[in-house]
Model the fold of this input.
Amino acid sequence: MEKTIIIQRYNPEQDQAPSAERYQVPFDHSTSVLDALLYIQQQLDPTLAFRWSCRMAICGSCGVMVNKIPKLGCKTFLRDYPAELTISALDHFPIEKDLISDMAVFLDHLQAVKPYLINDSKNTEPHRQTPAQLKKYQKFSSCINCGLCYAACPQFGLNPEFLGPAAIVTAQRYNLDSRDQGKAQRMPQLNGKNGVWACTFVGFCADVCPKHLDPAAAVNQGKVASATDMLISIFKP
Amino acid sequence: MPDSAGARRPYLQPLSRSWWLKHSFFLRYMLREATVLPLLFFCGCLLAGLYSLSQGESQYQSWLAFMAQPWVIALNALVLLASFYHAKTFFELFPRVMPLLPAPLMIAGQWLGTIAVALLLLWLFGAIG
Done:
């Protein structure tokens, strides 16, 4: 059994824009899109460039567009598609070569929200946390930084300065952590014009998230946090 | 001449004006946002009605006649449908923004609230009971 894989190829040394190339790939029930890409690279065309690492939806490296929907190659299977499928680099990011995107903008945004525990206390004891305190942020803590939500977000496509879903999820994840004291340092980023308010709740990020952590909910809960933060700052002497 | 910085030539993907036609998810989103357009017509009707009321009975009667025309009724029926669609999407998004209770409970609660308010208004204006 074979399927036709159409890949948008781009060679920065020769091409002005990506163009489609077709490959015939054998498949069975367990063949993932990543398996198909590896088959093409190893058997048909060694010049095909793409990122991958863990093959188990943990590393977040193999994000591509499959039939215009952002997907992890390792978590998407040929059996679920008709005889032809089209694969291209993630939307909204510059394409370095073939399926490899330049994720630098996303990483800058992630860094801007200080995605780590900030705690000034000199206490060296372990920070105890109750199951209820854990539950507050746990659902936002499984982000693997794959960038699929950025490829799904038309607001990020229109304005690359928008912090974007994963960075805001991560800011929320630390803001809601009882061990963290860095909320005041993160709120200016979230309150700004490229923060939570640039989101119009298209909600597609939540559909494509391979970890099902609903970035759209996190961003819009961030609006509640941002409004509260503003009200408090008005009435604070 | 070898130049590691110069060898990079990333392709910037343009975002076309028709991005929202790309698949059904974006289409449904744009439909949700577009529900405001018929609603504008309804608001215009309502404001015209209030204004005509201040202008005396004959003005008000001619506004009533305007509202009874088939195309106005058809447009306002569209307004109602659009509002229901917007309500449906809004009610489903709300529990994700403020997760106070399990989502199905919150969605059912909002619809029950809508029905209760509608019944109250119908009763106030004498359409029922």
